[in-house]
Write a structure and sequence with these properties.
Layout (H helix, E strand, L loop, with lengths): L12 H14 L8 E2 L1 H8 L3 H13 L3 E4 L3 E4 L4 H23 L3 H23 L3 H17 L4 H20 L9 H15 L2 H25 L6
Antiparallel strand pairs: 1-3, 2-3
Length: about 230
C-alpha cells in the first residue's frame, strides 16, 4: 500500500507578511524614516494585524525597523557611515563565501559556477538592453547565489541581513552611478577562480569587487548630500 503523501505546506501568514513588508522596505514603498502604526502598515499591505505584528518583530531583529513605544514603527534610516560599515561586513563575508565555493569538490563548484555565469550573462544582456532594473536583479541573484551555496549557514544569515540593509541605497543611486560595465568582468574573474578551485584567487577577486562597489557608492552618497537612506 502506497504511503499517503503529505500535502505541500503553504508558507505561513507570518512568513508572507515578513516577505511583503521586507520587500516594501527594500524597494522604498516604506521609505527611510517612515513612521506608522501596525494597523496602518497592515492595511497598506492588505493583511491582518497579527502576522504583520510578528513580521515587524523579525524585521526589528534584522535592523530594518524599530518599534517605538506607543508611537508605532519606524523604518530605520541609514547614514553614509552605516553604509561603510555594512560594506565592510559584505566585503568580508562574500570573500569567504567565494573561497569556500572554490574549495568544494569539482562537480559541486562547477554547478555553482554555471549558475553564477547564468546570472552574469543576464547582467550583460540587461546592459545591452539598457535595462538597469533587470541588471540589478541579475546582480542581486549573483551575490545571493555566492553566499547561499557556500555551505555556511551563518554566512548566509549574516549576508541576508546586511544586503537587505544595503539594497535601498543601491536602488536609490542606481541611475546616479556610472554605467556598471565593470561588474560583468569582475564577476567572471570570481567565477573562473571558483571553477578552477583557486580558493585564494576567488577570495581576492570577490573582496576587490565589493571594495570597488563601496568606494563608488559611499562617496556618491556623501557628494549628493544624502544624510539618511
Amino acid at each position: 500500500m502506497r504511503a499517503k503523501q503529505e500535502p505541500e505546506r503553504k508558507p505561513s501568514l507570518v512568513e508572507d507578511a515578513y516577505k511583503a513588508l521586507k520587500d516594501a522596505i527594500r524597494n522604498n514603498v516604506f521609505p527611510p524614516g517612515y513612521q506608522g502604526s501596525e494597523q496602518e502598515i497592515a492595511l497598506r499591505l492588505g493583511m491582518s494585524r497579527t502576522p504583520v505584528h510578528e513580521a515587524i518583530i523579525r524585521l526589528q531583529e534584522d535592523g530594518l525597523v524599530r518599534v517605538l513605544s506607543k508611537r508605532g514603527v519606524t523604518v530605520c534610516p541609514l547614514a553614509p557611515e552605516d553604509m561603510r560599515e555594512i560594506y565592510e561586513v559584505i566585503i568580508a563575508i562574500e570573500a569567504m563565501a567565494a573561497e569556500l565555493l572554490a574549495a568544494l569538490p569539482a562537480e559541486e563548484r562547477h554547478l555553482v559556477a554555471d549558475d553564477l555565469e547564468a546570472a552574469t550573462s543576464d547582467m550583460e544582456q540587461a546592459l545591452r538592453d539598457d535595462d538597469l532594473a533587470a541588471w540589478a536583479a541579475a546582480d542581486d541573484l549573483f551575490h545571493r547565489t555566492l553566499v547561499e551555496r557556500c555551505g555556511n549557514g551563518r554566512i548566509r544569515r549574516i549576508a541576508q541581513t546586511v544586503t537587505d540593509q544595503a539594497h535601498r541605497a543601491r536602488m536609490l543611486t542606481l541611475r546616479l552611478r556610472s554605467r556598471p560595465t565593470g561588474s560583468v568582468a569582475a564577476h567572471r574573474d570570481i567565477i573562473a577562480a571558483i571553477r578552477k578551485g583557486k580558493a585564494v584567487a576567488a577570495h581576492q577577486h570577490a573582496r576587490q569587487h565589493r571594495i570597488a562597489a563601496r568606494d563608488e557608492l559611499v562617496p556618491l552618497i556623501v557628494s549628493i548630500g544624502i544624510k539618511h537612506l
